[in-house]
Structure formats: C-alpha cells, structure tokens
Amino acid sequence: MSLHKLTAHELSDKLKSKDISCVELINDVYNRIDSVESKIDAFNCLTKEAAIKKAKELDNKGFSGGLSGIPIAIKDNICTEGTKTTCSSKILENFVPPYNATVVELLQSEGMIPIGKTNLDEFAMGSSTENSAFKTTKNPWDIQRVPGGSSGGSAAAVAADEAPLALGSDTGGSIRQPASFCGVVGLKPTYGRVSRYGLVAFASSLDQIGPLTKDVTDAALLMNVIAKYDRRDSTSADVATPDYRKALIKDVKGLKIAVPKELMGEGIEENTKKAILEALKIYEKMGATFKEISLPSLKFALATYYIIAPAEASSNLSRYDGVHYGHRSDKQNDLMDMYLNTRKEGFGPEVKRRIIIGTYALSSGYYDAYYLKAQKVRTLIKQDFDNTFKDFDVVMSPTCPSPAFKVGEKVSDPLSMYLSDIATIPINLAGIPAISIPCGFDNDLPVGLQIMGKAFDEETLFRVAFSYEQETRWDKRKPAL
Amino acid sequence: MSISKETVEYTAKLARLGLSEEEKGLYAKQLNDILGYVDVINSVDTKNISPTASTRLSAGKQKTTPMRQDKTVKFDGIEKIIGNAPAQEDNMFKVPKIMGDDEQ
User: Is B5-41 CATH 1.10.10?
Assistant: First the structure.
C-alpha cells in the first residue's frame, strides 16, 4: 500500500481503525525516502531506528486519533535532544542539543514520530536552500529548480511524499514561500502563538514555528498540537488555543477580502497574477466579495526587514564564538584570534553578509538612521494592516512574485533573492498570521495564494483556506517523481 | 553614502568576524547595493511615530508579558552541555589565553 501518498488525517483514521500498523507506516515512509531522496536532498539526517522503536511502542498501546503515530519531519534549526541540530551550518555541524524545543516535546506527548531533520538555508537565511553548507534541496516539481527557503527541506519532503507533514520556521516567508514553490500548505502563525523555545534564533521579533502540510486539515491538526502557551518563551502569549478542527467549514458567504495593489503590481509575474485573480473569482462565486485597496507602507517593508532582521541576527549569532559549542578554529593564538577565525571558517557567505549589515546598522552613528527608523516604519506597516482589518476579514495576495526559480539563478545577486520574499515579509513585521495554499499552476509549477488574517485569528484563515481547497482540490495534484 | 573596504573591515572586527581580502571587497560592493536599496525608508515621514521593537504586546489579546514564579529548576545534564564544548577541563569551558602577546 502506498501509505506515503496519504495525508496525516487519512493516516490517523487508518491507524485508529487498525487498518494499518504504525510500524508498517514508518517502514513505508522510509522506503519512499530511500527511493526519492537522492533526487530531492530534503534531509540532513534520518532517525529511523528511534522512529521504528517508537512505532512499536505505539502499536502496542493503540491509537486514539489526533496525530498520534504520525511521522513528521523537523527543520534542522529546531532543537532535538540527542539528535544533531545543525542549522545547515558548518559552525553547528556537530551540535547535539542537550534539550528538546517545546514544539518537539509537544509532538512527542501527542505520540507523533520524528523521522529526520530537514535541510535549510544556513541559519534560515535565504529563499532557496542554496545557502545550506551541506546541500541544495531540489523542487519535486522540477529538480532543476529550488524548493524555496529557508524551510525548503521541509516543503520538498512533504511535496515528495517523504513525510506526511513537517515543521518549519518563518522569519520573512521561510514557511510560506517554500510551501508556495512546492505546492503544499504552509502557515506562519501569529507571533507569540507557538513557542520559540528551542528554535535556534535568527531574528527574535520575527521568528515563528509553523506547519507545512499536504492539506489545510493537516495544518489545523498540527496547530492543535503545537499552539500552546510556554512559560519558557517570554514572548509566548498566554491565550486559549481553540480547537482548529472546528474552523474547517466550507463557508465564505459574506467574507470581505482586501487585495493590496502593492502586491499585485510591478514585479509580480503575469501568470501568477492571473492565478490569484482566478482564485478571487472562485471566492466571489462562493459568496465572498473582494476589493482592491492600497497599503502604501508595503513599498517599504522589504527595506525595513533588511535592517531589522540582520540587526537582530548579528546580535543573536554573536553566541557562536567557539567556546560553548560548535566549531572552533585551529588557528587560535589568543582569544581574539579564536573568535575571528572560528567565525570566518564556520559561517557561510550569506550569514556573514547579514552579520555585517546588522552590525553596521546597529553601530554608533547609524543606529538612529537605520535601526530606529526601520522600527518606526514597522509601526506604520502594522497600522496599515490594523486599519485594513477594521473593514475586511482577510487580505489576499500571491505568496511569491513568481513560481520556483532555477538553481543558481539568483545566487550571485542577493538583492534579487531578497525580492522573492516581497509579499511574505510584511506579515512578519506586522506579527499577524498568514497561510499559503496551492492555487494553480504556471507551466506545471505550483502557484501559492497567501491569505493574511488578524492577530490570533488563525481560525478564519483555516476556514477561508479550507473553503477554497474543497472547491478546487489543487492539493490532489502530485509531482511526477 | 558609500561603504569602503575599510568600513567593512572595521564592522567585521566589531562582529568578531574574520574576512579574507576578497570577501572585504565583495561585501563592500554588495553592502553598497543593499544599503542603497534600504535607504528608501528615509523618505518615509515618521514624525510622531513610535518604534515597534516587537508586535507581541501590541498585536495580541494579551497586553502584558505573562509573569511566572522566579523558581530554580535543576538541570541534570551538565555532561550533555559540556560534551558540546570544543575544549573542556573539569566541567569547565577551556579557551586560549586571553591577552595577546603585545598586550601583556
């Protein structure tokens, strides 16, 4: 039986009814990985032995539903006790975390089974996985193309049926952009909804962990597991988590959709625009209305992000100094030498670039002009969204300006790589949730629709995304591998 | 504003980041491109606008940071922590000498 093709909720039903055993499921998933991984390169490491052991335990106990017994891939910047967590960086190549991230603890108490750690752009900085120190993951729809990034390994693993679902992290689009490129569902939750404890920090005011899944139902089920208040993350919000399954209703009658013209104009490819307009017409047919609006501050979002994110990163990454963990240079005459050489050898080009930008923006004399100014523009971006949600229920746009680009196409031009996140970045700055769902194809490459909602209103996103998915069933189309 | 190779060198030193000569030249050029792009924010009128460092308290249902008991929790895994250190001795992190030869 080709179990790997099924969604997590379909598998959960089969486990519960004893149609299949968990060991059978885990074996099928690893067989699938064996047959396609050499083409995709989604994983940094696999944890087969532990997974099979866990599956046997669960088979003896039985399954009560939820996501118990479901295998999951975990982005390699989320700490897993006893299993290497590398951030696809040389500097953490041999790092074995002494503790689990809160989300990993939550997966385990649900009875989910981690199957391996997925590739990413080094320290989640990038949009293609080409910045990984180890390998470039390929897009299952066309292996000449990138899967997006930075959670490209997680997105590709799900799209290639190597895992029914995965965890990613999103600082400026790192869940949604690869979800869009790989034709899967990706949610960036509200800032504070999911604990960041154990997520290796990139830009702490923007980072958020979230699900990458084959359909909207699976994303809701995974959020039911990971969205919990955590006292170990001081930015975790102590608010009740609803049962997201209850939001999975096909009903958008009277829904008011705003479409910012800033995300539908210059720089967005024609075929992508066409796919979004067709999606909007489907919503209209189902009883929703949409209106073009203007969010003038969005023009400045990318610039704002490329000050704030590197500034926070330069501070967060100062901990990689060759003392407590990670790589240490052999060239170490004295302490200063050790710092300089350890970081020179351990970090890749994009990480170095961002450390320099961030350090520069925070340095004496430039702090007000760059960092403080960017934080003020951030306020304006947030206000633009707040005002929009007074009159509208959701905002929609393409997730990315174009479908997946070719491996190597943007590597030498950082600015053009940054531009592929133009529609996803404003959401992290505003702290609101957004989901990317498949909404069609451009020359056999998936196009993603981004749906943005009010802070802590993931339920509306799930209902709106689910309605469209049930109407169109783009999720049923699979890459030929 | 133009970023020179010397500025890159100085900034990298602040960040304790060693760079090759080639990298210094490359980053100077790329930094000019990137800073040239981000400079557009200086055209935005932000008079009377307060900065947002985090959206956590302004975007949430909960307007304060949750407080918890200031209680010690014992961590039984010193060897797991120390085991990750590139150099160690007696459960301590070992580093090279702190003073350079010319600073003594």
Answer: no
